[in-house]
Amino acid sequence: MEKKNPFITTVGFKKDDPEHVYVAEFLNSMGRGKAQYIVKAVLVYQDLQKKGVAKEFIEQALLEEGNEDETD
Predict the structure, then answer these.
(1) Greatest extent of the chain over all pairs of C-alpha atoms, in Å
(2) What is the C-alpha to C-alpha distance for residues 50 and 28, in angstroms, rounded to an integer?
(3) Within a 13 Å sphere around the CA of 9, how many CA atoms are in the beta-carbon half?
(4) Rounded distance, CA 9 to CA 27, Å?
(5) 3-state secondary structure string, the chain?
(6) Would you call 46 exposed, middle or buried from its count of C-beta atoms within 10 A (0-12, 13-18, 19+)?
(7) What's the whole-model pTM score?
(8) Which of 18, 14, 12, 16 is nearest to 62 (CA)?
(9) CA 31 – CA 29 distance, rounded (Å)
(10) Do 58 and 65 form a contact (C-beta atoms < 8 A)?
(11) Given CA atoms 52, 58, 60, 65 in this order, what sign does their dihedral have?
């Protein structure tokens, strides 16, 4: 079965996972700019993986960035 429109997707976040809650709230605050943000985030993440950067390092950097935003 093929998707009706492959350029539209729905993402479900886990409301009991603090990381999911943070990301859902962040994306919802962006309005219409969230698709471009997601595209860039995925491309950067994939590029870092290709360069051999450990997944744990990337996840830690993202967590630290999120914590900095909360203290502003």
Answers:
(1) 46
(2) 29
(3) 8
(4) 14
(5) CCCCCCCCCCCCCCCCCHHHHHHHHHHHHCHHHHHHHHHHHHHHHHHHHHCCCCHHHHHHHHHHHHHHHHHC
(6) exposed
(7) 0.63
(8) 18
(9) 6
(10) no
(11) positive
- The residue behind tokens 């967590």 is 63
Handedness of CA 15, 17, 18, 22 (dihedral sign): negative
Kindly list the distances between the CA atom of residue 17 and the CA atoms of 7, 21, 41, 69, in Å, as whole numbers in the listed order.
Answer: 27, 6, 20, 18
Per the CB < 8 A criterion, the answer to whether 39 and 27 are in contact is: no
* pLDDT tens sequence across 34-46: 999 999 999 988 8
pLDDT, tens only, 41-62: 999 888 887 877 766 777 777 8
CA 50 to chain CA centroid, nearest Å: 18
